[in-house]
Amino acid sequence: MHDTQKVGGSIPPRRTRILFSVNIQIIYEDKNFVAVNKPAGLLVHRVQSKTKEATLVDWLLEHYPQIKSVGDDCQIRPGIVHRLDKGTSGVLLVAKNQEYFDYLKKLFQRHEIEKIYLALVWGKVVPKEGIVDKPIGLKPGSVKRTVFINKAKMVKSAITKYKVKEYLLASKAGLPNYSLLEVAPKTGRTHQIRIHLASIGHPVVGDPLYGGKRASDLGRLFLHAYSLEFTPEQGKKIKLVADLPSDLTDYLYSVKLGLR
């Protein structure tokens, strides 16, 4: 087995560049791919061609113009091998050439890239470890997706593993319980983690789509793509890490102080 090389985390980023008012941290880079720490609130790519909102792809094309012809849909998402929701922060891989795009794509298809997310959810999750194995499809008459129901469209299998990292239980009456989870999706369906956690009664804090009536003043999803681990085509196994951003660590701290 290859040794694991941890990249990111407490190791200083190689450099920080600016996309308008957004900092883009480069976690790791070589001749074949770059791993960036996507901020929450930033679209990876445009959904509609008329959208004027700045995207990660805009920044990538400015700094890596060679990727404009890389990928399966290079007009929309050049170099992008996998996706993160707009509200999710964390590690995102971008291929610099078609050969490596195809290689990374195969690794994802074979489930040979281990993804770990950190999610703060409402309530005390029991048991401490589990697997959610529920197909996901489009909810009729809605943009939302849902776990399988008879009328759902485009239903696909979906599997998510979770493990409780820490319980954050209410220290006084009137405050909610929380659980901080390590989540490992084994498939890559849209909104999969959010849907699966909501389906077991523990939606992600700050989720406007699947969080129900629970209110949060966080202002974003508490969902962060913490790490990706895989073996490059040549070389040792590497682990790319993006630590929790300050808005999420501040929120956790306030919960522990009994302020939320």
TrEMBL record:
<dbReference type="GO" id="GO:0009982">
    <property type="term" value="F:pseudouridine synthase activity"/>
</dbReference>
<comment type="similarity">
    <text>Belongs to the pseudouridine synthase RluA family.</text>
</comment>
<dbReference type="Pfam" id="PF00849">
    <property type="entry name" value="PseudoU_synth_2"/>
</dbReference>
<dbReference type="GO" id="GO:0000455">
    <property type="term" value="P:enzyme-directed rRNA pseudouridine synthesis"/>
</dbReference>
<protein>
    <recommendedName>
        <fullName>Pseudouridine synthase</fullName>
        <ecNumber>5.4.99.-</ecNumber>
    </recommendedName>
</protein>
<dbReference type="GO" id="GO:0003723">
    <property type="term" value="F:RNA binding"/>
</dbReference>
<dbReference type="InterPro" id="IPR006145">
    <property type="entry name" value="PsdUridine_synth_RsuA/RluA"/>
</dbReference>
<dbReference type="GO" id="GO:0140098">
    <property type="term" value="F:catalytic activity, acting on RNA"/>
</dbReference>
<keyword id="KW-0413">Isomerase</keyword>
<feature type="active site">
    <location>
        <position position="85"/>
    </location>
</feature>
<dbReference type="InterPro" id="IPR006224">
    <property type="entry name" value="PsdUridine_synth_RluA-like_CS"/>
</dbReference>
<feature type="domain" description="Pseudouridine synthase RsuA/RluA-like">
    <location>
        <begin position="32"/>
        <end position="199"/>
    </location>
</feature>
<comment type="function">
    <text>Responsible for synthesis of pseudouridine from uracil.</text>
</comment>
<dbReference type="InterPro" id="IPR050188">
    <property type="entry name" value="RluA_PseudoU_synthase"/>
</dbReference>
<dbReference type="InterPro" id="IPR020103">
    <property type="entry name" value="PsdUridine_synth_cat_dom_sf"/>
</dbReference>
<dbReference type="InterPro" id="IPR006225">
    <property type="entry name" value="PsdUridine_synth_RluC/D"/>
</dbReference>
